[in-house]
Amino acid sequence: MHLSPDEVIFWQYGFFKLNATIVFTWGIMFVLAVGSKLITRNLSTELQRSRWQNLLEIIVTAIEKQIKEVGLCHPRPYLSFLGTLFLFVATASLCTIIPGYEPPTGSLSTTAALALCVFVAVPLFGILDQGMGGYLKSYLEPTVIMLPFNIISELSRTLALAVRLFGNMMSGAMIIGILLTITPFIFPVVMTLLGLLTGMVQAYIFSILAAVYIAAAMRTRKPHTKPEPKN
Amino acid sequence: MLIDWFTVGAQALNFLILVWLMKRFLYKPILHAIDEREKRIAATLKDADEKQAEAQKERDAFQQKNAAFDQQREALFSQASIDAKAEGQRLLDAARKAADALGTQRLETLRNDAHNLNQAISRQTQQEVFAIVRKALADLASTSLEERLGEVFIRRLQALESPAKAGLAAALTAAAEPVLVRSAFDLPAAQCALIQQTLNETFSATIKVRFETRPEVISGIELAANGWKIAWSIADYMAELEKSVGKLIKDQLKPEDKPENKEASEVVE
């Protein structure tokens, strides 16, 4: 019994290692990329289109709509980042139904990496939107006294993101593992179903929180120019 | 240690690669397809709107034309009605006139016929009367009608009143040409001589006389000289007879005229 897929190491050379987290991540990346490539190979711009294209369009437009609802009126620039966050975490959770699979999101290293990406992306989008000075000034809002609190908030929310996802995914995997030893039949199946649900919820929460942080970074300078959309 | 920093870095890199891959293979093509479709739908809708607007415009134009056409048709129809009425009235008037003319013509023809009939009757009557009188006189006095006429004429000459006699005498004597004595038949030489003699005696002068036979005098003798005339003939009686016969015919014709007129009026209607 191991707590994280990081502990399953297939190959190691000094500092470099190939553990289950990285391998399963590559697997997910491969499935997502190849699947997208295959479906988008023959895209139709007509009213008639394939079921797979329809599915992808629904997913993409739903993500776009969600981002818009969070407060980012023009979601296209953030779609790649936020959408990929959601799709990666969701796919990692969905694949738990495959026997022998361990979700890479059940590793704190992965969640920390994702949280770090958000941690970097938030100021990056903020700076791209309002410039370096404008973004840094937002740390002094509403007063200079708030600067340390703002910095602590940035760090803590990144930590919270990483730990929340890790905790949920790891606990799900752990509960199933423990239950398998106690009641090998039926109950783990129910828990797996519940795990799928919590995995989807976590994916939603993670990407929505990232979107909210980015939106907050956008709105600090222009509170009135970009009102939240009503729908 | 729960966090393996190499794995963190590798996962961060993996995630960034995945972001790029998804952007390349998923979001970009899908969004492009959606945009293209939206553009196409927008174009289609715009086209439909334009077509609808055009159709609306054409419908309006058509309605306007229809209204104008209706108005024109109404105007033409009313004009045609007026024209037809006028033409009908004109034809009616023409027919009435033609009927009137026909009626008048028929009446005229009828009158002519009556006149001709009158003349024929009077001519026939005269001849009959002559024949009867001639026969009667011949039977009664064994004298010819002509002789009797000559006698009556002579007697009338002799019985002339003074003023007339004086006027006639003046005319006879003043006449450069011989006095004309016209009769419907050839007078016998004895009669001619008697008339000559009577004239000479009556007017106490030698009067030149020229005898002439004229059938229209109708069994009579007349003497004309320089505007004066003395005559006796059956024609006078005949004129009286003709007048009375004519009146009789006229009275008989009148009731017949009325139905004809009625017929003529029916044609007019």
What's the helical proportion of residues of chain A? 55-70%
Radius of gyration of chain A: 20 Å
Tally of helical runs of chain B: 5
Describe the biggest sheet of chain B? 4 strands, mixed
Helix-strand string of chain A? EEHHHHHH
At CATH level 3, the topology of the domain at 143-247 in chain B is Dihydrodipicolinate Reductase, domain 2
What coarse outline of chain A follows from CA principal-axis ratios? globular
Shape category of chain B? rod-shaped
Helical region count of chain A? 6
Query: Strand order within the widest sheet of chain B?
Result: 2-1-3-4
First-to-last CA distance of chain A: 47 Å
Question: How confident overall, as mean pLDDT of chain B?
Answer: 81
The count of β-strands of chain B is 4
Counted up, domains of chain A total: 1
Chain-wise SSE layout:
The complex is a heterodimer of chains A (231) and B (269).
Chain A: E1 9-13, E2 16-19, H1 20-39, H2 51-70, H3 76-94, H4 108-137, H5 147-182, H6 187-219
Antiparallel strand pairs in A: 1-2
Helix pairs in contact in A: 1-3, 2-3, 3-6, 4-5, 4-6, 5-6
Chain B: H1 5-141, H2 145-158, H3 162-174, E1 179-183, H4 189-203, E2 209-213, E3 220-225, E4 228-233, H5 234-268
Parallel strand pairs in B: 1-2
Antiparallel strand pairs in B: 1-3, 3-4
Helix pairs in contact in B: 1-5, 2-4
